[in-house]
Amino acid sequence: MVSSRAKKSDGKGDGKDSKSKRERKLATKRAWARKAYADPVYREKKLAWDRAYYARNKDEITARQRCRYAEDPQVREKRRARVYGLSDDAYNAILARQNGGCGTCKRTDVVLCVDHDHETGKVRGLLCQKCNKGLGLFNDDPDITEAATAYLRQSRGDG
Predict the structure, then answer these.
(1) Which residue among 43, 81, 125, 146 is the one 20 to 30 A from 140 at the CA level?
(2) CA diameter of the chain
């Protein structure tokens, strides 16, 4: 009988080897999926299955995504970087430039959204949800917002 101390390690059973085995298995699975997905018939079946799965589990999936977005700041940071090309440092710089508040109403006790130009994709600043929706409803058109301001002033008797 050979003691475990005297036996030389053959690499089996230690964490490092099992991890590489898992990685190899995952790589094989990915290669198969990539090859299978190239087949238009398989692709259509897979897409149909995915759509049906999402339809059956939509509430659970969206609740899980909302929870993850609300609880994990890295999820928000990654989304800002992916969608707007805005790093965490750039976001904090805009926030500091706006004194920690909405770029329009200056409120600081609200959640801020990234406001961007839909045509160019350029980030303009950070707005609260009300101001962001307001600009969107006015189609981001300064002429319309100026007309709305004039209308409000006239109805108050200011203009």
Answers:
(1) 81
(2) 101
Alpha helices (H) in 8-120, listed in sequence order? 15-37, 40-71, 73-84, 88-97
Nearest to 138 by CA among 149, 128, 153: 149
Residue 136, H or E segment: helix 129-137
Pick out the chain residues at pLDDT < 70.
1-18, 159
Output Rg (C-alpha) for the chain, integer angstroms: 27
What does the pLDDT look like over 59-83, one tens digit per residue?
999 999 999 988 888 888 898 999 9
- Give the angle subtended at the CA of 72 by the CAs of 71 and 75, to the nearest 5°: 130
What are the structure tokens assigned to 100, written together?
């920690």
Per the CB < 8 A criterion, the answer to whether 113 and 126 are in contact is: yes
Residues 57/64, Cβ–Cβ less than 8 Å = no
- The CA distance from 70 to 116, in Å, is 22
pLDDT recorded at residue 7: 45
Is the pTM of the predicted complex or chain greater than 0.70? no
CA 150/CA 36 separation, integer angstroms: 61
